[in-house]
Design goal:
Blueprint lengths: L1 H16 L11 H12 L5 H12 L8 H18 L9 E2 L2 E2 L1 H4 L2 H20 L8 H15 L4 H10 L7 H27 L4 H28 L2 H4 L5 H4 L5 H5 L1 H18 L8 H12 L3
Antiparallel strand pairs: 1-2
Length: about 300
């Protein structure tokens, strides 16, 4: 069951994340409270799950994947904090709770996001909970920096903000989402593969194909849920994309066609895993979960 696997991985990454939010000085207590609030207030932990599942697929030691699992969740949390700001998406609700700038204040939210971003790379650079090989850790840092920066997630957010009110074609929409959402999801899988210590290039390429498919599938399903779900289930404001005139897959393709496309992407991901045996079963379950989830 994916829920059992999810609970086990959530407990593992949360145990590694919690010690990161102990303020070293009383003067920094509020900053660390805002950081902790942004990370530990729920969330499905999909990206850490992908780190662990990819590491397992290559029969790696999960103890070497804890750092990468923490790093991708810290980057993800920072991106949500900044995306929710009034200058960005201006959201009041995240994971069923007030967004960080509402729970604290706008300046605290900006600083918390900044701190989470730098903390992610600090966690990934140390030999603790990461591969002992410094060369592999350097590859992991480079990979995450590309996925999180202007060539990845930040670039996708810039495209998103610049596309409000515009009619994008499917190719342009895919470019935006492969950056904004897909880049960090793809990085999660590749980081888990690197953490495994398995250097089989064919296996790494297959996992990258899997990751590209589910990265886009995740966003397609997000767009579908923004139409079909409700605020209580989503934990964030339902219908915000349509209200803000943002380009989405249901708006472009129609709801039924968007659902078919999500299933096609899921099947592409599963096809990429054909060379793997039972060790990749968590990845297969995650591919199905991503297009079946309701929040």
């Amino acid at each position: 069951m994916i829920l059992e696997y999810q609970k086990r991985c959530q407990a593992r990454v949360d145990a590694s994340l919690e010690p990161l939010f102990q303020a070293p000085h009383a003067e920094l207590e509020r900053l660390y409270q805002a950081m902790r609030y942004s990370v530990m207030n729920g969330g499905k932990r999909v990206r850490p799950l992908l780190v662990y599942a990819a590491c397992e697929a290559l029969e790696g030691n999960l103890g070497q994947a804890d750092g990468a699992a923490c790093a991708v969740e810290l980057i993800h949390a920072y991106s949500l904090v900044h995306d929710d700001l009034p200058a960005m998406d201006d959201d009041d609700l995240r994971r069923g709770q007030p967004t960080t700038h509402k729970a604290f204040d706008e300046a605290s939210a900006i600083l918390a996001g900044d701190a989470l971003q730098s903390l992610a790379f600090g966690v990934l650079s140390t030999h603790r909970s990461n591969p002992q090989d410094a060369e592999i850790r350097l590859q992991m840092i480079e990979l995450l920096s590309q996925a999180a920066g202007p060539a990845g997630m930040v670039g996708g957010q810039a495209i998103d903000l610049g596309s409000v009110g515009l009619q994008l074609d499917q190719q342009a929409l895919e470019i935006m989402h492969r950056h904004k959402t897909g880049a960090l999801i793809e990085a999660s899988v590749r980081l888990g593969a690197l953490a495994s210590g398995n250097r089989n290039s064919t296996a790494h390429q297959a996992l990258q194909q899997y990751a590209r498919a589910i990265g886009l599938a995740f966003q397609v399903q997000d767009d579908i849920l923004d139409v079909e779900s409700d605020t209580a289930t989503l934990g964030k404001t339902q219908g915000k994309d349509e209200a803000n005139h943002k380009p989405t897959y249901p708006a472009l393709l129609g709801l039924d066609a968007a659902k078919r496309y999500a299933l096609e992407l899921r099947d592409q991901a599963l096809q990429a895993l054909q060379p793997f045996g039972d060790s990749a079963e968590p990845l297969r379950k995650l591919a199905r979960y991503i297009v079946e989830r309701r929040s």
